[in-house]
Every structure is written in structure tokens, then in C-alpha cells.
Amino acid sequence: MLKQEVASLSARLALLESQKRDLELANQDLSKRFADLERTSGRTDMYHRELKKDFSELRDKLFKAYDDKNNNFVNTQVLLPINRHNNEKLCMRKQLLLTLIKLVHDFPHQDLAFRFGISPATSSRIFRSWVSIIHDRLYKRIVRSPNRDCNKATLPMLYREHFDDLTEIIDCYETQVQKPHSLKDQVALYSSYKGRDPVKGLAAATGHGVLTFMSPLFCGRKSDKHIVLQSGYLDHIQRGDLVLADRGFLIEEEMAIRGAKLVTPSFIKNQKQFDAKTTEATRRTPNSRIHIERFIGSLRNRFKVMKGPIPIKNIFTATTILA
């Protein structure tokens, strides 16, 4: 009996020793793998530090290039005097640079936040603030009507034969926005014709392609006539002006009251077809008016933020949306 117990204990002891050897081998293998991971992690951390350093140096070089006195970057002290304390992490010039990059390239705020070393919320706040500043300081300097006599004297040959008194060409443009959370805003923005949520604005330009008027943004359901009447466009119309527009601009009476003339393609109404003279006039008007659409298209290509969709919080006031 005692011999059997000794034999059993010896067998268990041999099994435990075998398991111990297996565990020791496994422990050695794990220790080796852990050492390899530590070395790899150290190299990865070093790579990340070097990459972060290189990126920081490149970013500093970029900012230095824009801050160079010989560079043509906007001088915020001269062009945009701001008499307020800067509570942001970035200096004024970098804030303006961020805004211009967003307007031209429409990079996401996460991307801009990484580039400038700030948070996405800060990037969004800086962009909204500086767009308002740029509009307040530059709109009246850049967007204004040229002298009527000078405009007529330098009118392109395309218009001189049939539209010798041409002052401006007007058209509405659309930009899609993100769907708002408010049901009231959704109803105001949604366009059943487009099947989406756009905002509309009015643009006017001379025959040379000089921008003379940009309206606030209106909800996509508003008609072209409503936008013209509510945007204040008629306030800068003068007696004797000639304006080209599309069929949707039903403002002949309002223009006539101000002594101006509106030229649009003719409606066929109850006629079966146009006569030869009306057909020719109707053909000339769209061919001449097409240049405002090209002008708006060039603005979209230059400032990609206009292509949308624009975040609803960047549409600054509810009155602009629901006007």
C-alpha cells in the first residue's frame, strides 16, 4: 500500500516538474517577446517624437514664410485693425491664415486643428469670428459699383451691339447646407424642387466680371423676386441702368419705378411660338447673361467652401436663414 502511494506521488512529481519546465520555457519566450516590444515601442516613440518635431518645424517655416515682411500676405495691423484683446492661442495673423485656408480649400476643422495645434472647437470658433470681421471690414471696399460712365466706355464688344447701356447682370446661386435639427428651420430651408436643403443668394456683376453686389443668404424656398426685394439690391439701382436677368426675376415694375430697365428672356404665354424678332432677342439674352453663371462658377472654384455643404452653425443668424 505504501509503495503504491510513493509511486503515485513520484508520478505526480514528475508531471509537475514537466509542467514547471514548460512554464519556464514559456516565461523565457514571453520575456523575450516583451523585450522586443519594449525595443519596438521605444523606436516608435522616438519616431513619433521626431515626426512631431519635423512637423512643428515645417509649420513654423510655413508661418514664418507668411510673416515675412517681403511676403504679400495680408497685414492684419493695416488692413484689419482689431481693437480687442486676443484670448485665443493663435496670434491674429495665424487666425486670419486659418480662415483663408478654410475659405479657399474647405479643409475640415479637425485637419485645421492638427495643422495649427489647437482643438477643432477652437478652429471653428476662430473661423466664424474672422468671417464676420472680414465681411465688416472688406465688403464695402471690395464690392461696389463702378462709375457708370467708365463702365459704359469700357463695355466689352459682346454687349455693345444690343445692350449698349448694360450696367449689371444678376443671378441667384445656391449652396447646400447641412440639415438643421430644428423642424422650423428644416421647413424653411427645404426646397421640393431641388430635393435638398439649400440657401440662396443674389450676385450682380458688370459685363467685365466685376462683382458689384452680394446679398445675405436666404432659405432655398424663397423666390428670386423675394430675394431681390428683401436683399436691398434695388437701393443701388440708378435711373438709366440696364440689367440682364433670368425669367424668374419678375421685377420689371420695381425697376421701372426707379427709371431702370430689366431685360429677361421672353415668355411664350398664349402664343404657339415666337416671331422671328422675339426669337432672336430671346436667344441673345441668355447668351449674354451666361457670363454671370461663369463668374459664380469661378467663385465656387476659388473658394471651395461655397460648394457646401455648409455646417448650419456657420449660417450666422436665424434671421438670415428664415428671411
TrEMBL record:
Annotated Pfam families: DDE_Tnp_4, HTH_Tnp_4
Organism: Daphnia galeata
GO molecular function: metal ion binding
Segments forming domain Transposase Helix-turn-helix: 89-138
Protein name: DDE Tnp4 domain-containing protein
InterPro entries associated with the record: HARBI1_dom, Transposase_HTH_dom
Coiled coil feature spans: 6-40
Cofactor(s) it depends on: a divalent metal cation
Domain DDE Tnp4: residue ranges: 170-321
Keyword Coiled coil set for record: yes
Keyword GTP-binding in record: no
Keywords attached to this entry: Coiled coil, Metal-binding
